[in-house]
Amino acid sequence: ISTDNAYVKAHIVQIAPEVSGQVRRVLVRDHQAVSAGESLMTIESRPFKLALDSAEAELEAARSQVETLRGTWREVMSELADAEARADYFKRQWQRQEELAIKGVASASRRDEAQNEARAAADHVATVRAKLRRVLVALNGDPQLPVEDHHLVRDKTAARERAALDLARTTIRAPTDGVVVNMRVQQGEQVKAATPLFVLVVV
Known about the structure:
The protein is an alpha+beta fold. Helices cover 52% and strands 15% of the residues. Helix 1 (46-102) runs antiparallel to helix 2 and helix 1 (46-102) packs antiparallel against helix 3. The longest helix has 57 residues, at 46-102. The protein is rod-shaped. 21% of the residues are buried.
């Protein structure tokens, strides 16, 4: 690091951006004294704002998806109750026809018809239960789980927080009081994350 002789023995802090992009504004000049937290330069923020908007939209979509799944679960539970009731009814009808057929009161065709209806109703119950299992898997097995705790929403929330953090990082601030040294960054220049741009001599 090249610094003025007066600063050779001083404690220096390398200033590097945490995101890559184009320098929008350089807010300090070489040898300027700055305070901790003061803005030193900014990186073009529009791409990061767009990324944040996209992350927020995806988060809302994830929340809606989970709410829709919960609504579907309630509907399928109701459908299952109806299917089970119908299956129970047709099973009793089939048993009744079996008993009547044994006694010679009911025809074999009516008994077969009742058997087919009972089997169809039982198959429908199995189909609805399979649908319910799929919905439950999508809901992490817990339809009462708060929306914000669902893994889809947690993932999108984390992505949104990362995007917000990157946007905040487009403003580079002084980590401590000091004097700016070796400031040669210019507006419009492309900078890379973690690449030192200049130094701050702690005073």
